[in-house]
Every structure is written in C-alpha cells, then in structure tokens.
Write a structure and sequence with these properties.
Glutaredoxin; 3 helices
Length: 82
C-alpha cells in the first residue's frame, strides 16, 4: 500500500501535471482513476464538498485538493516522503 494516493482523471491536465511532478521527485504513489473506481469518486466528493475536484491526494493521511507544486512538496517533505 502506497503512502501517497492520487485520485484523478487521465483527461485532467492538473492530474497529469501532479503525477509527472511526483515522478520527477521519485515519489511512489498509487493512482486511482475516479471514472473507473466508484469508491475513489466517493472519496473525492467526500473531501471536496460533493465536487469532483482532481487531483485530490491523500499524502499519509493529509488530504490535498488540486495542490500547487509548492504545497505538495511541502507536505511530502513534512511527511519525509521527498
């Protein structure tokens, strides 16, 4: 089980950017395509007031919605993942 989970859509530019950014930092993650995973879609909606905001990340229990690179890197460093 990965400590970083990315809930997104492959058609979402922000999701693709976040995945590429994680890969550039050599951070391992689990990707959940919410159009194919009902539980993943429900997770996203539960943490975004009913909206499908992508990407939504679970970084060792901290939930981030559409994070900037700076915000994501800060959380990864705080969790000692980058």
């Amino acid at each position: 089980m990965q400590v970083v989970k990315v809930y997104g859509r492959e058609t979402c530019e922000d999701t693709r950017h976040t995945v590429a950014y994680l890969e550039s930092l050599n951070v391992k993650y689990e990707y959940i395509e919410i159009d194919e995973d009902i539980e993943g879609q429900e997770f996203v909606r539960r943490h975004n007031a009913g909206k499908d905001q992508t990407p939504t990340l679970d970084v060792a229990g901290e939930i981030l919605s559409e994070p900037s690179d700076t915000e994501l890197e800060s959380v990864l460093r705080d969790k000692q993942l980058a």
